[in-house]
Design a protein that fits this description.
Largest sheet of chain B: 7 strands, mixed
Number of strands of chain B: 11
Oligomer: heterodimer
Radius of gyration of chain B: 13 Å
Order of helices and strands of chain A: EEEEEEEEE
Helix content of chain B: under 10%
Largest interface: A-B, 22 and 25 residues
Largest sheet of chain A: 5 strands, mixed
Number of helices of chain A: 0
Radius of gyration of chain A: 13 Å
Chain lengths: 107, 114
């Protein structure tokens, strides 16, 4: 499975959009991009996933570049409850989580 | 619908003891996974299974064994526990490829090896 690179930490003001980047330059054609988040010591929570096209759901939007070598997760209006570690995963079957980005939403 | 259930949720072992963690899912999922998470770190994949009777190694398989004799259960075994295996263990499952790909997680099992 392809490796991903994420910044270790980010801050975002409450109510503003949070844009979390992920690099996956070795992604192969049949690998999906998934995003999960983990709040405290709970099990990770699924956010969104995509293959080539941009995706949107009730939680977030996923923007994938045309060459698929990077993506951005967008939380449109961050709240304090969005403070968590966010993981970008590129995978077929294995689901390697990596170290993620610790997002802190500031009041 | 219980989802993914892990047993036990807490366990304290002495070095050299053995134990088995049980993961059970009631969603008829094909894929099941075992992860460990050490303090301040991300989840690391130990072993996974793509169907009943199959298992495969993940990133950190040494010191662990797994079995998937029944589709709904995925067992993680520690034959001779070591302090380095003190961690929180998460089990997850998901449907076949072509589904949403969403991993459903259990609540975690906290293991301490003295």
């Amino acid at each position: 499975d392809a490796k991903t690179t994420q910044p270790p930490s980010m801050d975002c003001a409450e109510g503003r959009a949070a844009n979390l980047p992920c690099n996956h330059s070795t992604i192969s054609g049949n690998e999906y991009v998934y995003w999960y988040r983990q709040i405290h010591s709970q099990g990770p929570q699924y956010i969104i996933h995509g293959l080539k096209n941009n995706e949107t759901n009730e939680m977030a939007s996923l923007i994938i570049t045309e060459d698929r070598k990077s993506s951005t997760l967008i939380l449109p209006h961050a709240t304090l409850r969005d403070t968590a570690v966010y993981y970008c995963i590129v995978t077929g079957n294995q689901f390697y989580f990596g170290t993620g980005t610790s997002l802190t939403v500031i009041p | 619908n219980a989802g993914v259930t892990q047993t036990p949720k807490f366990r304290v072992l002495k070095t050299g003891q053995s134990m088995t963690l049980l993961c059970a899912q009631d969603m008829n999922h094909e894929y099941m996974y075992w992860y460990r998470q050490d303090p301040g770190m991300g989840l690391r994949l130990i072993h996974y299974s793509v169907g009943e009777g199959t298992t495969a190694k993940g990133e950190v398989p040494d010191g662990y064994n797994v079995s998937r004799l029944k589709k709904q259960n995925f067992l993680l075994g520690l034959e001779s526990a070591a302090p380095s295996q003190t961690s929180v263990y998460f089990c997850a499952s998901r449907g076949t490829s072509g589904s949403s790909g969403e991993l459903f997680f259990g609540e975690g099992s906290r293991l301490t090896v003295l």
